[in-house]
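Team,

Forwarding the record for the chain on the shared tracking sheet. I've put the sequence and predicted structure together so nobody has to dig through attachments.
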Amino acid sequence: MKRAVLTAVLALGLAMPAFADVTLKQTTTGKGMGMSGTTGGTTYIKGGKMRTDVVMGDKTMTTIFDVDTQKMYSFDSKKKEADVFDMAAVGAELSKSVDMSSAKASFKPNGQKKEISGKSAAGYDMQVSMDAAMGGSKEMSMTVTLQGPVWIVADAPGAADYARFYKTAVEKGWIFSDPRAAKAQPGQAKAMAEMYNQIAATGGIPYQTEIQIKLGGGGPMGGLLAKMGNVTMTTTLDAVEVGPVAEDLFAPPAGYKLNEKK
């Protein structure tokens, strides 16, 4: 769950300058679903590839998205093996459990300003909702809602390159979370992707997102879902750098066993 909500930074640039690699360092604080705490992480983007390293205790969890090959790799620093997912197949499976026609999104400037990591950020109020079936079961239908303020830096370094990656990924139906968690809660995964789509239209990078995730439903399951989905998460960018990133960062280390997942 925690990994399913990391890496939520987007921007959409209108110009198409030369490609540049981007490195972002962020801190995420979350609460809910029986979890709480703060994690640090680093995200690297190079063309159509993205890698996120998240420090969790004494190990680092790594996720690599390769949009060009439609592959996702997941591994940690304690094991010499990596799980490999076919994201085209994952996207197709999730679409069977999510009613995309039910999607509702609102992303509006609220007129507020805030300084974050030395940058002036403009505030936006965001809300995205979507209907889905939990675990693919029609008897577990729910509505997933993401809401909260997002703070955008319009002139952030690397914005166009960040945008190019996410824009391409969203167009191909990608989700930005662990497929195993997404299959259990497809509505949340798709709602997050729609959130990225809304952020993209601002033309800047979100230096902070303060997101509350809620699940709701009718009948006797409604109350249970409401308790399960009361999750809050704040992600803050601590630094953004533009400069070369090594190509070998975007594949599992040599010698790792690759486990094909479905």
